[in-house]
Amino acid sequence: MNTLTMRAGTCEYPVYIEKGLMQSIPERLKDMFPQSRIAIITDDNISALYAKNVTAACEAAGLRYDLLTVKPGEGAKSADVFARLLSKLAQRSYNRADVIVALGGGVVGDLAGFVAAVFLRGLRCVQIPTSLLAQIDSAVGGKTAINLPEGKNLVGAFHQPSAVFVDTALLQTLPEPDFADGMSELIKYALIRDADMFIQLEQSGTIHADSDILSSWITRCLSIKRDVVAADEKDMGERMLLNFGHTIGHGIERLCAAQKRPMTHGRAVAIGMAAITAASERMGLTKAGSVQRIAAVLQKMGLPHDISAYDKDEILKGILVDKKNVADKLNLVLILEPGQSYLHQIPGSDAKSFI
Ligand SMILES: NC(=O)c1ccc[n+]([C@@H]2O[C@H](COP(=O)([O-])OP(=O)(O)OC[C@H]3O[C@@H](n4cnc5c(N)ncnc54)[C@H](O)[C@@H]3O)[C@@H](O)[C@H]2O)c1
User: Fold this and answer.
1) Do 2-174 and 177-354 fold alike per CATH?
2) Ligand 1: does its nearest atom lie under 6 Å from the Cβ of 153?
3) Which of 41, 101, 228, 326 satisfies CB 3.0 to 4.6 Å to 112 for a cystine?
4) Span from the CA of 171 to the centroid of ligand 1 (angstroms)
5) Low-confidence ranges of the chain (pLDDT < 70)
């Protein structure tokens, strides 16, 4: 088993990474929280696949638990669903000693994490991420949130988990488009901080959910996130590197949503990473040949990389309303070459030349 220790401010918590870890998690929870009740929050897809085994293992471990399910998808990160979960905990008299377990992808992790952050002013939370995106990224770092009709992740809190359990065997049931989306973020980690991992990606064949190399790559992504978050828990500086490809990616996501042909986040980020690198390479800010290497890896993983079919003025509009941009300055994350990233600030008026 790989174990990492995550640090954020004065808080420290373990991340365990192992194929097949799931079966032993209830026993480990019983050891960690012997007197507590456990509210397992999950979605209907995960519940259909895993609830039977998980609840049997909880019973065998002597855990007192409740299983609370929500509908799958981004719609679950709503004020209504959030309030309904809080009410359920109140009706079942959960108290400060009890624990929330988030069993699911990034949606469940963000939602259940936010429930844990605010119920009775904060319960402990354990994350059991089930999607590739959640395993390499969203389950660690302590960001929790729900959406408002006005925008994504507008209400939330920083609330670090007590522990994170990553079982890579769970990825074998993840639908292929969600797996490819997670691969896009995995490639992003290699590009911003891990030249060796990027070379492995270049040299590997197509990666599947049961590929042996995945556990080691997930561990490397989590180590990068650990280092970046430790340096910048509240997302004001270094952590912006994690947004590589996201500025243009968000613009594309908004444009596609407006045109009623939604594009997934991972695919939009894939195009964003290639597009920003094409621009920075043209401007001499990135080593020549980098964009060709990125496009080849994205293509191999079944991800798009070509921005030419999208209306650049419309993408720009989306970018300029992005909440991460301060005043008329645009903070961009660029790579020097695959494996090395840096922050670069430009005036908003120069944004068009970067698309
Ligand atoms: N907190 C953070 O730091 C952070 C970072 C990045 C993204 N996010 C958030 O993460 C969310 C996206 O997460 P996601 O991509 O995991 O989406 P998701 O949680 O919606 O999961 C994608 C789909 O896969 C299904 N699924 C998940 N694991 C499965 C498994 N093992 N087997 C079968 N089906 C499975 C889910 O039911 C869902 O239908 C967004 O809301 C985003 O804002 C948060």
Assistant:
1) no
2) yes
3) 41
4) 12
5) 232-236, 321-327
Supply the residue whose CA is at minimum distance from atom 34 of ligand 1.
Answer: 174
CA pair distance 109, 113, nearest whole angstrom:
6
Length of the chain: 355
Which residues are registered as beta bridge partners of 158?
143
- What crossing angle do the helices spanning 79-91 and 106-118 adopt, rounded to 10°? 50
Nearest protein Cα to ligand 1, atom 13: 106
Eight-class DSSP state of 146:
E
pLDDT tens figures, 122-149: 999 999 999 999 999 999 999 999 999 9
The CA 329 to ligand 1 mean position distance, Å, reads 31
Q: How many whole angstroms separate alpha carbon 237 and alpha carbon 232? A: 6
**DSSP assignment of 100-125, as one string?**
EEEEESHHHHHHHHHHHHHGGG--EE
Is the C-beta atom of 106 inside 6 A of ligand 1?
yes
Give me the amino acid identity at 151.
G
CA distance linking residue 193 with residue 244, whole number of Å:
11
| 177-354: CATH architecture | Up-down Bundle (1.20)
- What's the pLDDT tens digit per position in 260-273? 888 999 999 999 99
- 153 CA from centroid of ligand 1 (Å): 14
Yes or no: say if 134 and 15 are a contact pair by the CB < 8 Å rule: no
Q: Where are the domains of the chain?
A: 2-174, 177-354
Q: What is the pLDDT of residue 312?
A: 87
Q: Which atom of ligand 1 is nearest to the CA of 170?
A: 31
pTM: 0.93
**HSE-up (13 A, CA, CB side) for residue 337:** 6
